Amino acid sequence: MAEQAQTRWLSESEQQAWRAFLTACGRLFPEMDAHLQHVAGIPHGYYEILVRLSEAPGRELRMTQLADASTSSKSRLSHAVARLEARGWIERLACPTDRRGQVARLTDAGFAALDAAAHQHVEQVRRMVFDRLTPAQVEQLAAISAAIEAGVDEVSSSPAARACRAEAEARDSQAAAGPLEPLELLEGDGGSCPL
Predict the structure, then answer these.
(1) What pLDDT digit, counting tens, does each position of 16-72 carry?
(2) What does each C-alpha distance from 10 to 15, 16, 152, 167 come to in angstroms?
(3) How many helices (H) and strands (E) does the chain have?
(4) Exposure string (b/e) for 180-195, b if CB count within 10 Å is 16 or more?
(5) Under 8 Å CB-to-CB from 121, ≥6 apart: which residues?
(6) The CATH number of 22-132 is which of 2.60.40.640, 1.10.10.10, 3.20.20.80, 2.60.40.10?
(7) Percent of the chain with pLDDT over 90
(8) pLDDT at residue 164 tops 70
(9) Residue 92, beta-bridge partner list
(10) What whole-number distance in Å separates Cα of residue 153 and Cα of residue 169?
(11) Cα–Cα distance between 175 and 181 in angstroms, integer?
């Protein structure tokens, strides 16, 4: 009961903003994913991996760096890289400074696939997001996104959040160990995260 008494409920305006944000994200990301599946045969998460590698020096990153940059769990990233590797778009190499580590490198074929998809993807992003915003709103979107990310960083450092990530990682590892499904990201089932 004490926890319920201390709950800081959202105000009506906060609730409206939160619902609008959820609705916008809930509609935007599936549309982006469907579009990339159509133009490139890959989901948005895989596209983001290719982008991160294309922007890295030598078009390569350690797998741990790539997981952090693409906000993927290590097992989910490993599964995605394996799928992209099967297409010849990424190659995995031994890390020269750490025998246990691996480096993911974007191949020329992967860069060409990314380049072919990027033109249409950027146009889709522009039509669905940036064409709708004023320059001031673009600045606000960047500031709001940074503030949200800072909040996520703060909360995610808690022991409960680490437990949630460990649970999600275990689910991802189990899913990745199964047979390969059609090229798409696997969705978690929610689990029993303590947050």
Answers:
(1) 999 999 999 999 999 999 999 999 999 999 999 999 999 999 999 999 889 888 877
(2) 6, 9, 18, 28
(3) 8, 3
(4) eeeeebbeeeeeeeee
(5) 32, 35, 36, 39, 40, 47
(6) 1.10.10.10
(7) 61
(8) yes
(9) 104
(10) 18
(11) 10
- Tell me which DSSP letter residue 72 carries: -
Per-residue confidence (pLDDT) for residue 98, from 0 to 100: 77
98-111: pLDDT as tens digits: 777 889 999 999 99
The structure tokens 């989901």 sit at 43
Rounded Cα gap, residues 29 and 121, in angstroms = 12
Average pLDDT over residues 86-100: 88
In this structure, what token pair is assigned to residue 48? 């983001």
Domain boundaries, the chain: 22-132, 135-178
| Contact residues for 145 (Cβ-Cβ < 8 A; gap 6+) | none
